[in-house]
Every structure is written in C-alpha cells, then in structure tokens.
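Supplementary material to the annual report.
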Amino acid sequence: MSDTTTGGGRDSALLLFAWKAVKLAATVALTFLGLLVVTFLIGRVVPVDPVLAVVGDRASKSVYDRVFLELGLDKPLYEQFWIYLQKVLTGDFGQSFLTKRDIVDDIRRVFPATLELATVAILIGTLFGIPMGVWAAVRQGRLADQLVRVFGLIGYSAPIFWLGLLGLLVFYARLQWVAGPGRIDIAYEYAITPKTGLLLLDSAMQGQWEAFRNIFSHIILPAALLGYFSMAYISRMTRSFMLNELAQEYVTTARVKGVPEWRIIWVHALRNAAVPLVTVVALSYANLLEGSVLTETVFAWPGLGQYLTNSLQNADMNAVLGGTLVIGAIFVGLNLLSDLLYTLLDPRVRRGR
Amino acid sequence: MTPLLTVEDLRITFPTRQGPSEVVRGVTFTLGRERLGIVGESGSGKSQTGRAILGLTPPPGRATAKVLNFDGIDLRNASAATWRSLRGARMSMVMQDPKFSLNPVMTIGKQLLEALKFGAGETRAEARARALAMLEAVQIRDPERVFRAYPHELSGGMGQRAMIAMMLVTEPDLLIADEPTSALDVTVQVEVLRILDALVRDRGMGLIFISHDLRLVSSFCDRVLVMYAGKVVEELKASELDKAQHPYTRGLMNCLPKIEGGVRPLPTLERDAAWAV
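Predicted assembly:
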C-alpha cells in the first residue's frame, strides 16, 4: 500500500508562517529598491527645474548656480541616486518647498487622516460587502440577488463627488444627522492631544467621549461613501467566489452528511471563498489608503490625497516623491500581509516549502 | 417484510432552452437490506436517480415520483428538518472523487465529527473516539494522523476510505455509492471495494451501488438494474447476468473482453433508438 500522509497540524502551520515571513522580508527589500529607483527617475524625468522650484524664477544667476551645486545636480546620476538612497534610508525625504517642513513630518501629519478614513471605510465595506455577496450567491437569480447587484452597480458607476455632495446636502444640511466637512469641530480640536494622529483612537484613549462622538459624526459620511465603493466591489467578488464554491462537490458531501444549510454556507463555502477574498479586501484597502482626492476635497479632509494633489500642482517634487514612496510601501506591505494570511487560511499553500 | 426503500415512477426533469429535458423517466424499484447495482452509460440517469433519493437533485432540476418512500417516510414533500434528520444519520452517499468531495480547508477529523452531529448524550471526546474507531475500520493504519490531516495530504485511496468512514460512522440504514472507485487506481479499487463490501455486509444495510462497470457491479451486488436513456431496461439477479434478455444489456456484456475468447477488436456497442422510447 503506497498510501502515505504527511500529518500537518497547527504547529507546522505556525512554523511555516514564520519561515515565509523571513523569505518575504527579503523579497520586500528588493521590491523597495526597485521602487526607489523608479521614484528617483520620475523625479529626474519630469519637466520641472528643481532649482527654480527652490529659488523662484526671479533669482539671480549666482543664486541659481549656488543652489544647483547645493542640490548636487552637477554630480552624475548614479551618484545622485546613491545620495538619495542614503537619505531615504535614514528617513530624510528632504523638505517641502511648499510647507517649508520636512516631508516626513508632513506625511506624519496627513497620513493618519487618510489611514483613519480608509480603515473605517474598509470595515464598512467588508462587514457589509461580504454578507451581501454571500446572500446574493445563496439566492442567485432571485430578488435579493438582483437588489444586491443593482445596489453594487450604483456604487460602481455613481461619481463619488456627486454622491458626496448629495450626502452632505441630505444628511448634514437637511437632516443634520452628521457633522459637516473636516475631521473635527474647532470646539473639540484642542481637547485632545494628538498621539497616534488617529483621532478616534486618541480621543477614546483619553476618555474624551464627547469629542469622540464629534469625530465619529465627521468621519461616518465620507467613510460610508468610500465604504460603499469597496462594498460594491467586495460584494460582487464574494458573490462570484461563493457561487463557485457552492457548486463544488464537497458542498454536496456536506449536505449528504446532514449538515445544516447555514453551516454549509458560512463555514464550508465561505471558508474556502475567504482565500481569494483576502486579496480583494487587501487591494481595496490599499486603494483607499492612497487617499481619495475627490472625497478628501469634497469633505475638506486633510489627508494624503489632498496633500499629494497640492504638491503636484505646485511642482513640489520632494513631497510628491515622498508620498509616492509611502503609497508604494503600503501596497507592498498589504500584499505581504495577504500572502501571509493565505498560508494561514489555505492548508494547501503550506505544502509549498 | 416492508422494503427499506420504494421508488415508483421517479422522473427527473431539467429545464433547457429547448424545453424541459427528462433525464430520468419513470424509474421503479424497491430495495430491502440488500445490495442493488445500477449500471448504465454516462447520461443514463443513474447518478441522478441516486441523488434524487437523498433529495439532492441539483437545481433547477426537479424530481417527482408516484411513490418515494424510505422506511415508512414519504420523501416526496419532506421538510428541510426531515431531510436533515435523515441525511447522514439514516441514509448517506459515498461520492466519486475524494479530490473534490472533501472540503480542502477542513481536517478529515473535523469533517468526520460533523457527520456525527454529537449531542444526544455524547461528549466531544466520545465522538472523537467513535470517529477514530471508524477510521480504523476502513483499515487506515494511523487513524490519529489521518484525523489531523487535510484532504490534500492523503492519497486518492486513503481519501476515499476517509470518505467511506465519514458516510458510515453514523451507521445509516441506506448507503448510496456513486461510482466510489472510478477515480481510483485499479490497484486501490479492489481494496476499497473490499472494505466497503465488508462494512455493508456486517452492518446489514441497504446499498445502492452505481457504476458503469457491469462486471464490477455483478460481482459485488445481489441484483442489478440496467439503465438506458433514463429508463430501467432490465432488472436481473447478478448471478443470472448471462441470461439477460434486453439487447442493450447483451451488448454491454459482449463488449467485455474475455480471457479465453481472444476476439479482436471488441464489438462496438449498438444502440437502438427504439429502446429509448
């Protein structure tokens, strides 16, 4: 009898998880190097004179030449890259011409706003999107399925600035259920000391519940709006993954065993559908973290999207490069995370040692 | 003695673009605590017959029957609760290919325990012991390890034994085996069949063995139904297979290679449109 088993349990799963983490860290380092090369080259290719951006177009020739040397632009490209690399690795992205502050400080200021918005949005998108997708798949072709699909289609196709303005008009101006644009009312702004920059977290940790409620009332509308868009995508993907899983033989096996239908759907099928869903959710989250320019504009949200747009319009290349790098890092990080989750969710992936 | 299962005029239809298509057309048989074989070619409706008995006709297909009775219970309009109490506990089915019929992200042990639906005074530990004993009964040498293993960590033969264990652990009265060995290596087939045969015989359960392999069925069952185009064309004792009357059955028999005959090439199976009417 040639039958063999390689007994795999939780222990070996955790060990492999750790090994994979190490292996991926090496991959990530390489990816980052590539990312740095690309951002560096973009900075050199765009038709913006970095010297003029610093000194202004009325500077004299001597001032111009001095700054030209200060910026190291007379050195060969590879040497410039080497200097850039060293600076970036020590956390020095240079200064913003626009705000006159270090890019790192700027990003530390604007990114939490986007992070907070994106996190609340993805929570909404996932918590509603997955059950809706499952529901649509179970009732395929029936009214519930059609409703979910239409609802998703609207989410896909309606312009977000329009929905945002409409939302502000209805829920803020008319019904007054939520607070208006901005992250927090001025009255509360100095009640909390920023620690993480995530205002919901900060206010909760400091026990400022009134401020917390105000912040929540500010964030809920833009987050619901962004969440709606991810929900449209997530529910659609969940539906199709679930339809695929529900047609598998193991579902019939479970029915033959007399397993109740809810367990077949939520345990058997969804557990299998969760594997590809991890990627879908992670990528949606990454997209949200880029900062939605339109949403941030409509809701006067001081986030990454607004900051980057502003920098681009003013040819503030250091800021643009720093922001691009952060976004790249987010994508790499989330991809990494979803890869790691794969190994925990799918025992078949663990075999690939 | 009342039969375990009575099926009268079972019909299964699937809607198609060309109108409804009847894939099972008036199948009638009864089953006691015996082993009944159903043979037929692909698309003859044998698998659908098996699934309809378990109420698992895949939508949008619909199964109807004049009588569909399992141990005094009318299955035709059985409620979801009735089905749940019957499936697994009193009737179950060994599926074709363990590669697809086992949940890939659940351990064998978890899938086995699920069949037991422990509750009635049984603790988790007792259920586990019962599951492990069942794995031993299907001649798995290291039940503890298989219990903890995921389906992809098992070979086909091992997976199918786990499947048999899963379906028999509740000691059902009726077992449907839908081509249980077709996906396995020839060398493993005999072994798995022997295990299945011994367990069914020991427990005295009713068995419906669905296969396209006439010889396998006749060596394994007491009685054989031959299906063609959704109808039972012949019913006979397995031992009297050579007395088959229907030309389709005879044709099937003729297509089997014989050791002494040495006839080459084997005759092609002939089909007559009149048989399907």
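Chain A is about 75% helix and 0% strand.
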